[in-house]
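Obj: model holo form, ligand = flavin-adenine dinucleotide.
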Amino acid sequence: MTDKERQELLQRLLEKQKDGGLKPADRYEIPPQDMPEQDPVERARNVNEVATGYTETHARLEALRCLQCKTAPCIKGCPVKIKIQDFIAAVSEGDFKKALTIIKENSLLPAVCGRVCPQEVQCQQTCTVGLKFKDPTKAVSIGRLERFVADLDQEEIIPTVAPNTGMKVAIIGSGPGGIVAAADTRRAGHDVTLFEAFHKTGGVLVYGIPEFRLPKSIVQKEIDVLTKMGVKIVCNFVVGRTRTIEQLMKEDGFDAVYIGVGAGLPRFMGIEGESLVGVYSANEYLTRANLMKAYDFGSGADTPIARSQKVAVTGGGNVAMDSARTAVRLGAEKVYLVYRRTEKEMPARIEEVHHAKQEGVEFHILQSPKRVIGDENSHVTAIECLKYRLGEPDESGRRRPIPIEGSEFQIDVDTVIIAIGNIANPLIRQTTPGLEFNKWGNIVVDENCKTSLEGVYAGGDIVSGAATVILAMGQGRIAASAMNKYLAEKSDCNKPC
Ligand code: FAD
Ligand code: SF4
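Output (holo structure tokens):
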């Protein structure tokens, strides 16, 4: 569809709507609006965002596809319960400010969520339009509409902050959960300090998810809002090393603490050759490339990264796709994605799989490395893989991969990136007596995100294990609300009777 045809269609539909309204049949006939993207060959050579965003015409046409279902099943699929049909109605009317106001009632970071939330397994999965066509790709593109209205928001709105309560809050970790917890506790008038181990704030949003999926300027804008609200930001501060939680509370006068340190410890496969030169965890590879801008080494950045020719990435999640696509952008001739199940079982977003393939990543499914092979200088030269077949479903509900004996074969590579998942870093556990953890090393909390320690709350990946941005944000909000209540009671107790 050309831009002209799109504009004419929108005009016709708006007139029809004025004349007596659009019937469901009219709405079903509107073609789903694809997101404009950079050309695959072009974008594989740059780090700019792949999806370039809807125009106003795309957005209003897409919004007119929404049936405005009375029961809004899409909301049931949204972890933070955005009033989806209301914001989409505002988009269809061209009232984008109203649309954003509705979204912001429930989600503080719409420009981030519109880009990285797995909508296809959340709100869009339950959308009536997708179900009617028995095709999930035909669901209303709720995420793209969210991104569209969030990107139009050039005006910086600084939330109102209540008068000073005299209570001090420490937020540990500046990922999405920490950002939301900091904003919501500061809004209540507390003196909030956000401690971050890295030299830059934003958590996985800046060190993990690459620029080509989530521009760092978007995250920085949210951090700037926190600063303007009066949140103090302290980087290069590792809680558990620089100060412990006990010291923050007993010696530094913090009345409440939110722990949002994520799940930043990479898992390895435990196979021979994993310590050879040229084997990276996805975390290290992505942190070097994203946070430390290794792609610019020698010109603007000081952090080196392997200039690889042939790269194997093991895993099938978003982290694996991000690593493979980053390797493409860093100039690798061949990038292989090695995954022991099939594409159907891959946890990565469908869109990411599609983009990776478009950019030339070769998928080796039903295969997994058995060992990494190196030369006399301990540099990687190849991986030896085994072939797999699928058996019965395992506890994750996915069919179990079963190795085929004697199926060993080799792939020549000079770099291996292990992207099979992350777990909790044990530092907080080792340095916080009395804080309860489960067997996977995650902090145990109640329904208000309260931990076993008085005044200490937690949320995000350190509680749920590696999960999603929206879930971390949701828990940051629950924790902040409980902290505000706790601090109000504490402040009342401190007042002379
Ligand atoms: P995190 O984002 O993990 O941030 C925690 C912060 O705490 C970090 O900045 C860390 O440096 C800091 N910290 C750690 N220890 C300490 C300490 N002791 N003292 C002070 N600071 C500390 N989710 C999606 O929804 N969609 C996606 O597309 C997606 N893609 C992903 C791609 C990658 C490569 C990765 C790694 C994850 C992805 N995720 C995605 C998952 C998502 O990013 C996380 O679930 C989310 O960021 C968790 O948020 P969090 O608030 O728990 O903290
Ligand atoms: Fe609109 Fe789909 Fe939600 Fe119905 S389920 S209100 S069609 S977005």
